[in-house]
Amino acid sequence: MIEFHQVFKRYEGGHEALKGVSFALQSGEMAFLTGHSGAGKSTLLKLIALMERPTRGQVILDGQNISKAKDRHIPLHRRKIGMIFQDHRLLYDRTVFDNVALPLIIAGVAERDIPKRVRAALDKVGLLNKEKQLPIQLSGGEQQRVGIARAVVNKPPLLLADEPTGNLDPELSAEIMSLFEQFNQVGVSVLIASHDLGLIARLKHPVITLKDGRTIRNDLTEEVVA
Amino acid sequence: MAGASKQATTHKISIFDRFAMGLKLHRKNAVTCLLQILKHPANSLLTIMVLAIALALPGIFYIVTNNAKALSGDWDSSMAMSLYLEKSANENKARELVADLLESAEYKSVSLMTKEEALEEFKQNSGQANALEMLEENPLPMVITIVPGDENISPELLQNRAAELEANPLVEFAILDTQWILRYQEILKVSEKIGSFISLLLAIGVLLIVGNTIRLAILNRREEIQVIKLVGATDAFIRRPFLYTGFWYGLIAGLIAALMISILSNLIGSSASRLAELYQSSYQLLGLSGTQVLALIGIGALLGLVGAWISVRKHLKEIQPT
């Protein structure tokens, strides 16, 4: 699904966030990305979502070297990735339903199909009865689940999550993680950046650990197995 | 990106659906943007009024020059030439000249005013009869008034005729009634040029105002745009509501400008025709025709759209998700 080959990322101003990272996440695999803040976790996720471009090396998604993708192809690229953020990134002036419907509207899904699919996604995260509420009326954990529903509503083959449990208590964190596992079980590839080492240790998934932009632990292979 | 098209098949969307959805989105965007403006008029009222004034000014200028042109058009048909004869000229010779002039089909009427008639007219019109009686002899010359047969004769041609006639030893000088019309028309041409230039400046002003309003709208929705970009929205998708907002701003401003102009021309119209009556003229003020009103609204909408386009092009690129 994802391959990194000797990826370097140097930001303007000289900060080197990634210094030669290589790993491969197989299609349908679920893995954790850990490391202290500033180790390069967010940068790595941003490279996959084409929010940043690598300075050197190759980022390959689905056999395509996306580092060379043209700007106008970025939207199509992002539609293949469901992204979840620590701060949810919801639209706070729109209802839960409208938030989840957004990727479908953007992708041009026929209007008659939208309610069915939005409700299916909300059902999976257990928020079917909250579709008419505004995000602000929901708890932090519920808001995060709205974010997850939005990420999966278009059935992307890959989910990326940046500290999805960062602001949640352990019980809610475990719930969120089990949601990700459910999606993984139906074939979605999942990569979760988290520094919640306790939680990660309990869940038996491969781990990549970054330190100062280098991989210090890599349970994954370095090549995608065909 | 072959990968993209391969992946897109995971959740198939037919071309027809895409097209139908695209149309629906356009309609939805158009309606929601209009409703947003109408629901919160306070937010946009100021901008729209400034735009309306900027659009109304060239319109008013157009009406003024148009009327001024129409007025001078009326005068063109009353062009005439007066030949002032030498004081020593003999009346019989003058009558011969009149007969000669009448023979050429070029003139509609040629009439002679004798010294006595001239004196009589002067007495009646000036109220200075007593002053003239003190003079021993009549100081007024004979005058031949010539009206050209062709009403649309060009002022230049008439000027040439006048010069020819001045060569006649009987004629002291020829005066064209049209000379001041010519000057008037030149002034009109100059002011029309100034008007077009000012209109151009105001059009640029409209572009800048709409552009700036849209810029603020974009900045206000910065976070929303970032989120929408993250979920895979194309630039066209993000651009659309802003373009519609600019379009509606321009269109509504055009409507208000047309309204302003029609109120103004109605206000002025009645007093203008009263003024015309005093001059024994049935002149009617020309307002904007239906087509011109539509053109004004259309120009407003187009300027709004273009202003929004320029702004969106410049500012959407700057907003990238972080």
The portion of residues assigned to helices of chain A is 25-40%
Rg over C-alpha atoms of chain A, rounded to the nearest angstrom: 17 Å
Return the domain count of chain B: 2
Number of H/I helices of chain A: 7
Distance between the termini of chain A: 10 Å
Indicate the CATH architecture of the largest domain in chain A: 3-Layer(aba) Sandwich
Largest interface: A-B, 32 and 32 residues
Which range does the strand content of chain A fall in?
15-25%
What series of H and E elements makes up the topology of chain B? HHHEHEHHEHEHHHH
Number of helices of chain B: 11
Map the helices and strands.
The complex is a heterodimer of chains A (226) and B (322).
Chain A: E1 2-10, E2 16-25, E3 30-34, H1 41-48, E4 56-61, E5 64-65, H2 74-78, E6 81-84, H3 96-107, H4 114-124, H5 140-152, E7 158-162, H6 170-185, E8 189-193, H7 197-202, E9 207-211, E10 214-218
Parallel strand pairs in A: 3-8, 3-9, 6-7, 7-8
Antiparallel strand pairs in A: 1-2, 1-4, 4-5, 9-10
Helix pairs in contact in A: 3-4, 3-5, 4-5
Chain B: H1 2-8, H2 15-39, H3 41-76, E1 81-85, H4 91-103, E2 107-113, H5 115-126, H6 129-133, E3 143-148, H7 155-166, E4 171-176, H8 179-220, H9 222-230, H10 235-278, H11 290-316
Antiparallel strand pairs in B: 1-3, 1-4, 2-3
Helix pairs in contact in B: 2-10, 3-8, 3-10, 8-10, 8-11, 10-11
Please, could you describe this protein's structure?
The complex is a heterodimer of chains A (226) and B (322). Chain A has helices at residues 41-48, 74-78, 96-107, 114-124, 140-152, 170-185, 197-202, and strands at 2-10, 16-25, 30-34, 56-61, 64-65, 81-84, 158-162, 189-193, 207-211, 214-218. With 226 residues, chain A is of the alpha/beta class. In chain A, the strands form two sheets. In chain A, strands 6-7-8-3-9-10 form a six-stranded mixed beta sheet, with helices on both faces. In chain A, helix 6 links the parallel strand 7 and strand 8 (189-193). The radius of gyration of chain A is 17 Å and the shape is globular. Chain B is of the alpha+beta class and 322 residues long. Chain B has two domains: 24-74 and 183-316, no CATH class; 79-176, Alpha-Beta Plaits (2-Layer Sandwich). Helices cover 72% and strands 7% of the residues of chain B. Chain B contains eleven helices and four strands; from the N terminus they run αααβαβααβαβαααα. In chain B, helix 8 packs antiparallel against helix 10 (235-278), helix 8 crosses helix 11 (290-316) and helix 10 (235-278) runs antiparallel to helix 11. The longest helix of chain B has 44 residues, at 235-278. The chains are: A alpha/beta (226), B alpha+beta (322).
